[in-house]
Amino acid sequence: MPSPLVTLTVHRYPPAGTWRGWLRMGTDPLSLRRVPGLTFFRLLGTGRGADLRLGIDPQRWARLAVWQDEAAFRAFEASPWRGRERAHLTQSTTFLLRPLRAKGRWGGRQPFGAPTADTCRGPLAVLTRAAIRPARLRAFWAAVPAAQEGLHEQPGLLLALGLGDIPLLSQATFSVWEDAASVQAYAYAGAGHRAAIARTRREGWYAEELFARFEVLAAEGDGHGLSLPPR
């Protein structure tokens, strides 16, 4: 069975239109549940800048989606509903992703299946997501600065975003790297990052977690500052 197409769409609203992002978090699921070929989605707020820290960017919102195939995604992109959405945005980028590896669950589901691809022709994206136990919230947020120390100076990092679908309690990161070697270097070379991972296991910070890697097929729209070769 072919792997699904995964997309992450990042929107930016004008300052006077920030209310639309908040409103759509509540109203969009009613429409998205009826979209043919859309098997999973999450609407996400974003952190300020490129970090996962307390605080949100009220102008920037994201949508993670899993599609049966690219045809379903293209039909959605051409729909009147999507056209009306675009009309209120100042910026929009969609990353097209092919699942390579995935472990864990999101809301009790395995949204990306169980891919086991070993090859990646383009840049690599990494998605991490965790539902934090309320009793561990203080420890989690206190550990974030050390866990991210040196991230933005890391060779091979092309893009990083902090995401969340439930304020404080359900957090995610999305990053794009030049290649798998760059990801491995950051994961194992940063002392703060390694220490945070060890503490999550030892102290049971998460009620649920997910880790996934993707091949980045394309970045459509304004590209969010990321230049990729054509498909």
Contiguous helical run count: 6
Helix-strand topology string: EHEEHHEEHEEHHE
Largest beta sheet: strand ordering: 1-3-2-6-7-5-8-4
Helix content: 25-40%
Structural class: alpha+beta
Radius of gyration: 17 Å
Major sheet: size, sense and barrel closure? 8 strands, antiparallel, barrel
Q: pLDDT average, as an integer? A: 86
Query: What percent strand?
Result: 35-45%
Shape: globular
Report the span from N to C terminus.
22 Å
- Please provide the count of β strands: 8
Q: Spans of 5+ residues with little confidence (pLDDT < 50)?
A: none
Q: How would you sum up this structure, described in words?
A:
This protein has 231 residues and is of the alpha+beta class. The protein has six helices and eight strands, in the order E-H-E-E-H-H-E-E-H-E-E-H-H-E. The protein has helices at 18-32, 70-77, 80-86, 137-147, 180-189, 191-203; strands at residues 5-12, 38-46, 60-67, 91-104, 124-132, 157-166, 170-177, 206-221. An eight-stranded antiparallel β-barrel has the order 1-3-2-6-7-5-8-4. Helix 4 (137-147) packs antiparallel against helix 6 (191-203).
